[in-house]
Amino acid sequence: MTDVLIDGSLVGTVSDGKTFVQDLITSRRAGKISAQVNILYNEKEENVSIDFGRNRIRRPLIVVKNGTSLLTPELIKDLKDKKIKWFDLIKRGVIEYLDALEEESTLVALKEEDITNEHTHLEINPISIFSVNVSLVPYPNYNQSSRLARGQKNQKQGAGIYALNFLNRLDTNMNLLHYPQTPMVRSFTQDIFGDSLVGGQNIVIAVLNYGGYNMEDAIVINRASIDRGLFRSTHYRPYTTEKLRYAGGQVDEIGIPPKDTQSYTLEEDYRFLGEGGLIYPEVDVTGGDVLIGKTSPPRFLSHLESFSMTANIRKDTSIRVKYGEKGTVSKVFLTESGEGNPLVRVEVRENRLPEVGDKFASRHGQKGIIGMIANPEDVPFTASGIQPDIIFSPFGMRRMTVSQILETLGGKVGAMAGRFVDGSGFQSEDVDNLRTELLDLGFREDGTETLYDGRTGRLYNARIFVGNTFYMRLKYQVTDKLQARARGRVALLTRQPTAGKAMEGGLRFGEMEKETLVGHGASLLMKERFDSDKTVTYVCERCGDIAVRDHYKNKLTCLSCGDKAKASPIEVSYAFKLFLDELKSMGIRPRLILREKYKS
Amino acid sequence: MADIEWIKTKLPTIIEDKVKKTGANKNKVIERYKKMQLDPGEAVGIIAAQSLGEPGTQMTMRTFHFAGVAELNVTLGLPRIIEVLDARKEPATPTMSIYLKKPHNTNKHKAEQIANKIKQVTLEEVTSEFELDLMTLTLKIKLDSDLLKKHSITVKQLVDSLESQISGFELSEKRGILNISTDSKDVKKVYKMKEKIRSMYVSGISGITHVLPVMTDSEYVIKTFGSNLKEVFQISEIDFTRTTTNNLCEIEKVLGIEAVREAIVFEISNVLEGEGLPVDIRHILLIADTMCYGGEMQGVTRHGITGSKQSVLARASFEIPLKHLVDASIFGEEDRLTSVVENIMINQPIPVGTGLPELIVKMRKKIAPDKKKKAVKKK
Predict the structure, then answer these.
(1) Which pLDDT does position A301 carry in this prediction?
(2) Residue pLDDT, tens place only, B305-346
(3) How many domains does chain A have?
(4) Which of A473, A490, A516 is the last residue of a domain?
(5) Residues A59, A154: one domain?
(6) Given this model, what pLDDT does residue B368 score?
(7) Residue B114 maps to a domain
(8) In this complex, do A522 and B354 lie within 8 Å of one another by their Cβ atoms?
(9) For position A304, which CATH number holds?
(10) Are B297 and B316 in the same domain?
(11) What is residue A174's DSSP assignment?
(12) In chain B, what percentage of residues exceed pLDDT 70?
């Protein structure tokens, strides 16, 4: 007896599960039952699962019977002649969709020649064992799998054109490459996905050391290439605000804030605002400039305040360009939010040239940042005068990304012969053919060239591998990360420097760093390092409490001793003073007992 | 302080002796000795902590923390170091290395015999049947004579050792069957006893669950799982000068604080060397000294060394600050701000390295007149 489960729930039993399932599958292939049904006979647990519910991921496979694929050459010919369609193949039971469940009972051959009598299915194309992204990598079957995983991850981060309607969209962190190109060495899947959404350029690389500026994973880029527009991109950032309504009938006001608003900054910051409080397009702005002038009603109103003058003081909540960023206002949008409130969006655009520290990658998990922008006269050149755009370090070759070498070779053939090179997984162009073609084109068949050092003019003793590779500019750029400060904002509570780039913060000299100073006995250096929040406070020597300065009487007094106080100034970190205050809030009274430091 | 005086007086003669024996250059010896001395104010504690912390971070990243075969699986690596430094009462895997005295240590048969003697035997291991008579509330336990012979236990020995462990129950023996009865009518109690008595030890040394005589270099050493130093030392064939356990608390109880100090140094350097991350022994010595100087082993925890710090702020900055602050306020404690942590908190120079020396000015005019008088009197 075998249990029969439909979509997971038990409906009955059959006497022979195996033949039952076989009958079902044959009738499905014959089109007697829906092609969307998937069936599995689980021998171990003695049950039959029949699934036709939603949310099953299914994929098509060619059915194999008695060791031969049902997709015969005749059918393929018919398909090519457009006599039959894809759905006809499904109807005829040549192709069927399997879900994860039914896949358990199958043995799928990767290629037609691999089929044995045990096989039940055949992949439509061997490349379908890869994901969409991995399938775009040329020559993937020459690589270690982890390189493919890394390569596809880089592809997702490449700046390019991410959506054709980008002009009408307002995405955060939009990066557009100026002259995107379709890869020269490509997989046939690239044709399926189209050439419009690509994120990189075909460039010339030389595998060479360049004075240590491309050590580890760094790359050296040719300034002449950048000057001619290589890897230029535009970065867009939208700034949004909504005119909110508050309880009590108060509303945000969009307009130029009056000078008496709370937290009004320099008049200069508001200089670009038009009458409506919005910035004009095509204005160059830098960090701190106001894009949208806005005031909000005071947040908390006490009873007393609501009758006084302060009730009318509004707060400046203008939207400003982020600290450390700059750009040009490209668009100003005025719409309505979901709640029906007026909504303003200002898009700031910035042209970004490649600079030292920007991240680049090929499609083979070989990523690196620019270590140097070399002047064109210093860049190596071949006998025919070709200069590489990027000098790639031979260090990267230790990762055994054979696919990158093959792509570079294929790219060279493609560039010289003026054609695309097919690098699709498992069915790519033969490398030997590429080599002979390169030889016919007048190059060395292994892709190496005689190179001259641009700095000295001397011939390199070794022949250098030069070719064309598809490179991508990744979204990680130094301008988004670079930050430094000496003095600056502090947190209100602790008077210590703020943290993080957005807040113009400092880099924390942390616990372990502190320990190193102690270990070196650099006691006074440490005192200096940690005095960012030092304050002078007064302590009453009579009672040990913190004393206060009475500005009215211009006198130091202590709250517990009154006029008898004997207050002395001491220098401590503000965090310690705060700590004492917190102790007091716990009901603990800390007292400071002062002593002259240099008295015996 | 007495030790320093002792060193001061004895050291020259010690050097003299060494120089005479080895024929070394005396001046060079003294020069080297002076070179090796640390400067006053060197932050030895921090350096020791960093020196042990660095291999610690390495070890979390790439090691197996256990070693040995399935039954003799000893904790090693970072968990073991933490265990030692925390001065845990019981290690995760207590083990002993039992060395034997001269004639026995090369005799395989004798070593095995002693190993069997040491191994704890539970009642379960020598019985074939357990039976509970609910009518009379008696436990009937059938002993297996073959198993008894194998462990070389006589029935009388067994009865003797059991009797001391079952208070409130009567024990009688008849033709290899033990009868355990009680006056109480509590079924639960008897039932509990039935479960409990299975794991009661009848011979051997309690706590030692596995024994393994191993041939090392030129003699047999009994490695055990489970530790009971005190009982093992009672066995006459044991060489108690070399037999050790990794249970530091036991060493403290049986052999005293000096032995623990040695054991801490041995255990830590052993683990570090095993990982291939050797650390200068002076750092470990410092830590071991700090753990033991009070005469009682203290862990580097809030209950141990850190908890016994004099400064309130220093204690509060290490785990559960509120408890320390509240307790300090109840007892009206005073913080003299003499150590490192407190001075960092108030942002003052720490008394380490360059912050240690202070400027002392000789005043021409004496500040207190009465002091002057005293000074004159002394003259």
Answers:
(1) 57
(2) 888 888 999 999 888 899 999 999 999 999 988 889 999 998
(3) 3
(4) A473
(5) no
(6) 60
(7) no
(8) yes
(9) 2.40.50.150
(10) no
(11) E
(12) 91
Residue B134, pLDDT above cutoff 70: yes
Residue A211: inside a domain, yes or no? Answer: yes
Which pLDDT value is given to residue B379? Answer: 44
A520 touches chain B (CB under 8 A): yes
Q: Single out the residue of A489, A179, A468, A160 nearest to residue A324, CA to CA.
A: A489
**What contacts A366, CB < 8 A, 6 or more positions away?**
A151, A217, A392, A396, A399, A401, A404
User: Which residues of A have a catalytic role annotated?
Assistant: 217
Rounded to the nearest 5 degrees, what angle is found at the Cα of A467, between the Cα atoms of A463 and A468? 165
Domain at A466, CATH number:
2.40.270.10
Shared domain check, A245 and A218: no
Q: Is B325 on the interface with A (CB under 8 A)?
A: yes
Which of A518, A527, A531 is closest, CB to CB, to B340? Answer: A518
C-alpha of A419 from chain center: 33
Report if residue B143 sits inside a domain.
Answer: yes
Task: Name residues of chain A where pLDDT drops below 70.
Answer: 299-312, 598-600
Q: Which range, of A421-435, B19-33, B55-69, averages the lowest pLDDT?
A: B55-69
Token pair recorded at residue A144: 């270690």
Query: Which range of residues forms the domain containing residue B373?
Result: 311-379
User: Looking at chain A, which residue has its C-alpha nearest residue B331?
Assistant: A588
B256: contact with A, CB 8 A cutoff? no
Q: Which of A543, A509, A538, A541 is nearest to A526 (CA)?
A: A509
> Are A346 and A374 within one domain?
no
Spatial distance between the Cα atoms of B142 and B136, rounded to a whole number of angstroms: 17
- Whether B307 contacts chain A with CB within 8 A: no
- Domain encompassing residue A100: 2-124
Asked if residue A454 is part of any domain, the answer here is: yes
Q: Residue B37, class by beta-carbon neighbours within 10 Å (0-12 exposed, 13-18 middle, 19+ buried)?
A: exposed
The whole-angstrom separation of Cα A252 and Cα A265 is: 18
Q: What pLDDT shows up at residue A599?
A: 60
Output the domain CATH number for residue A81: 3.90.1070.20
Q: Is A586 on the interface with B (CB under 8 A)?
A: yes
Tell me what the pLDDT averaged over chain B comes to. 83
* Residue B183 placed within a domain: yes
Residue among A161, A157, A156 nearest A475 (CA): A157
Residues A583, B325: C-beta atoms closer than 8 Å: yes
Record: contact B43-A588, CB cut-off 8 A: no
C-alpha A429/C-alpha A423 separation (Å) is 6
Residues of A in contact with B49 (CB under 8 A): 515
Burial category of A325 from C-beta neighbours within 10 Å (exposed 0-12, middle 13-18, buried 19 and up): middle
On whether both B188 and B132 belong to a single domain, the answer is yes
Confidence (pLDDT) at A224: 95
Residues B178-227 pLDDT 10s: 788 777 777 777 777 777 777 777 778 888 888 888 888 888 999 898 89
Q: Decide if B148 is inside a domain.
A: yes
The kind and range of the H/E element at A390 are: strand A390-392
Among residues 202-241 of chain B, which lie with CB inside 8 Å of chain A? Answer: none
Q: What angle do CA A474, A134, A407 make, to 5 degrees?
A: 75
Q: How many CB atoms lie within 10 A of CB B220?
A: 22
pLDDT for B71-103, tens place per residue? 556 788 888 999 999 999 889 889 999 999 888
Cα distance from B345 to chain A (closest Cα, Å)?
6
Say whether both A95 and A180 belong to one domain: no
Q: Does residue A49 fall inside a structural domain?
A: yes
Q: Which of A514, A523, A524 is best to mutate for the B interface (most B CBs within 10 A)? A: A523
Task: Report the residue from A519, A524, A600 with minimal CB separation from B46.
Answer: A519
* Residue from B329, B346, B362, B374 whose CB has the most chain A CBs within 10 Å, to mutate: B346
- Residue ending a domain, choose from B269, B286, B308: B308
Q: Of A455, A473, A491, which residue is a domain's last? A: A473
Number of domains in chain B: 3
